[in-house]
Amino acid sequence: MSDLHRVLEALRAAAEVAVLSHESPEADAIGASLGAALALEAAGKRIGVYNVGPLPPALRALPGVERVQPAPSRPYACYLVLDTTEPARTGGLLDGRPPGSQVLNVDHHLGNRGFGDVNWVDAAASSAGEMVYRLLVAGGFPLSPPVAANLYAAILTDTGGFRHPNTTPEALRAAAELVAEGARPGEIGRGLYGQRDPRELRLLGLALADLQVSADGRLAWITVSRAAQAVAGIGLEAAEDFVQYPRGVAGVEIALAFKEVAATEVRVSLRSWGPLDVAALASRFGGGGHRNAAGCTLHLPLEAARAAVLGAAAGLAGR
Amino acid sequence: MSDLHRVLEALRAAAEVAVLSHESPEADAIGASLGAALALEAAGKRIGVYNVGPLPPALRALPGVERVQPAPSRPYACYLVLDTTEPARTGGLLDGRPPGSQVLNVDHHLGNRGFGDVNWVDAAASSAGEMVYRLLVAGGFPLSPPVAANLYAAILTDTGGFRHPNTTPEALRAAAELVAEGARPGEIGRGLYGQRDPRELRLLGLALADLQVSADGRLAWITVSRAAQAVAGIGLEAAEDFVQYPRGVAGVEIALAFKEVAATEVRVSLRSWGPLDVAALASRFGGGGHRNAAGCTLHLPLEAARAAVLGAAAGLAGR
Question: What is the tens place of the pLDDT at every residue in A164-174?
Answer without folding.
Answer: 999 999 999 99
